[in-house]
Design brief:
Elements lengths: L1 E6 L5 E9 L6 E11 L4 H19 L9 H12 L5 H19 L11 H12 L4 H20 L27 H10 L6 H10 L3 H5 L6 E2 L4 E3 L3 E5 L2 E5 L10 E3 L2 H20 L21 H14 L9 H12 L4 H8 L4 H7 L1 H19 L4
Antiparallel strand pairs: 1-2, 2-3, 4-5, 5-8, 6-7
Helix pairs in contact: 2-3, 2-5, 4-5, 7-11, 11-14, 12-13
């Protein structure tokens, strides 16, 4: 392979022309490679240095320049090849982004994988930032980058252009709300007898995620040892519910103790379900889940969030997300005097850094409580 540095009519930067032999046909071919080096001053020398780097990259990795697959076709193939190694819910999430966002943006450009540059990736990120948050743009960029990593491994390109752009700065979510002790008590009072009473109690008591509490199964309950395991989840995307026998991380897949209040609630539920089975011997749906409708059907995660919102509205409680019950659990534990390390263990975070980052505002709340208490104690000296 050989190459030269040249200018292209009407273009402000230098280009590199590579001459190579097609490994399939034996024909001599030519490829133009854009550089980011402006045509000015002594930049020709810099462009020639870049030529040496490009030749070394292509020769060293034996890139097959004859592979002319379009980027939009390649990313679809990449996703299908990935399907067997990821969860169905993850695959659907990737597919939705790729089909509805990435492909419509790149399809009109007719870009081949080998012609994708950092500029093309940056343009997509900038486009997303006009209508979505930086965090969403970063998620899309990760999909693109993983796809292009595969192209590097297949020797279609020499480097991943998605790793050579200006990354948007991730925005920390500061909108988390939480209930105090009085509000938690009120919430648990108004949900007595409601279809999601047990779901709310488990979420507040253990700080469970929605997917974890909806996925709880009787097989994970051990009344002898008074413990249960968090090892099943249900995730909903649209109308599809994915039932998974695994959890978010190793820390999530753990055993938790069951005090008397939890045991009593579970035994009451179990007795009720046994009665419903007798009343509906042919129609009862038994998949082993704990929180179900009267016919045994799993309560969908989306229904939990919508119904929870209605409960708050109906009882004039402050609006929070269902996931904020997890924050409320952490807040209550901190209020009771437990350390961040203890809260990390209870909420099953992989490391304490996650707990500190998410619940730093709760730590300040605890400090204010201490300050107010000390203020009352020492006020006579002021």
């Amino acid at each position: 392979m050989t190459g030269i540095v040249t200018a292209k009519s009407g273009r402000p930067n230098y280009y590199i022309i590579l001459d190579y032999t097609d490994e399939t046909t034996g024909e001599r071919k030519r490829k133009w490679v854009k550089t980011d080096i402006p045509i000015a001053g002594n930049n020709k020398r810099k462009a020639n240095e870049r030529l040496k780097e490009v030749l070394a990259e292509y020769d060293g990795q034996k890139i097959d320049l004859s592979k002319d697959i379009l980027f939009t076709v390649f990313i679809k193939e990449w996703l299908e090849n990935l399907k067997s190694s990821i969860a169905d819910s993850t695959y659907d999430a990737y597919k939705q982004v790729i089909d509805n966002q990435i492909i419509p943006f790149y399809e009109p450009k007719k870009l081949k994988v080998k012609d994708v540059t950092p500029l093309h990736i940056q343009q997509y990120v900038n486009h997303k930032l006009k209508s979505a948050s930086p965090n969403t743009a970063i998620k899309h960029l990760r999909n693109i980058s993983k796809c292009l990593d595969s192209a590097v491994k297949q020797n279609i390109i020499t480097f991943n252009p998605a790793k050579r752009i200006d990354m948007p700065k991730k925005v920390k979510y500061n909108g988390a709300k939480f209930y105090n002790e009085k509000q938690i008590d009120e919430l648990l009072s108004v949900v007595k007898g409601d279809i999601i009473e047990g779901i709310i109690l488990f979420s507040v008591f253990y700080g469970l995620r929605r997917s974890e509490v909806c996925g709880l199964k009787w097989s994970a309950i051990n009344f002898d040892t008074k413990t249960f395991e968090i090892k099943h989840t249900t995730v909903q995307r649209g109308t599809t519910i994915y039932k998974v026998d695994s959890t978010k991380n190793d820390s999530s897949n753990s055993s938790m103790p069951m005090p008397d209040i939890i045991i009593k609630m579970l035994k009451t539920l179990k007795a009720k379900q046994a009665q419903n089975k007798l009343l509906q011997p042919n129609d009862y749906i038994d998949e082993g889940y704990i929180f179900v409708r009267d016919n045994g059907q799993l309560i969908p995660p989306a229904y939990v969030s919508k119904h929870f919102k209605k409960i708050l509205e109906r009882n004039n409680l402050p609006p929070i997300r269902f996931h904020d019950l997890r924050h409320s659990s952490a807040s209550y534990l901190l209020y009771l005097g437990f350390s961040m390390k203890e809260i990390q263990t209870w909420l099953r975070h992989g490391d304490i850094g996650t707990t500190m980052n998410i619940y730093a505002h709760l730590d300040m709340s605890a400090k204010r409580n201490i300050a107010d208490t000390l203020n009352d104690k020492f006020q006579k000296f002021g």
